[in-house]
Design goal:
Length: 143
């Protein structure tokens, strides 16, 4: 049930962001907005929230979500929309808005679901060894 509410929150966020980014400033149809929202919601949830967030953490997942949203709208916008200015500015503005909302979505995901961020293997000072020094023997020199 939690995942359905997260998907619904992401879908509503994408609807608002694409309505602002693509329809408020430019001329996009409601079908374009709903199709972009559905595509971005599913792909962003599957890649960003279920794969990237547990492995790389919140800030890396936000950066990847931004570029993922931007490229998805850019690629599929070039198929559905006519104006390159509309595609460029609409994808940039909507990617910023969606990334701003993803901060809240990631906090909810990390707090309420079973998503845990894996700890990175860092430097262990107990395993720090001193430097070994040795001489290399030249096979040509006889002793």
């Amino acid at each position: 049930m939690r995942h359905i509410s997260i998907l619904l929150l992401k879908f509503i966020t994408c609807l608002i962001a694409f309505a602002v980014g693509l329809d408020l400033f430019f001329d996009a149809t409601i079908v374009d907005i709903i199709s972009f929202s559905l595509l971005v919601t599913i792909v962003s949830y599957a890649i960003g929230d279920r794969i990237i967030l547990p492995r790389l953490g919140n800030s890396n997942a936000l950066a990847i979500d931004f570029f993922l949203n931007y490229t998805m709208v850019w690629i599929f916008g070039s198929v559905l929309l006519e104006s390159y200015v509309q595609i460029g500015w609409g994808s940039l503005l909507s990617a910023f808005l969606i990334t701003g909302a993803e901060v809240i979505v990631h906090r909810i995901l990390l707090k309420n679901t079973d998503v845990t961020v894996q700890q990175k293997a860092g430097f262990n000072p107990k395993m720090a060894y001193g430097m070994e020094m040795g001489e290399e023997r030249d096979p040509r020199v006889k002793r």
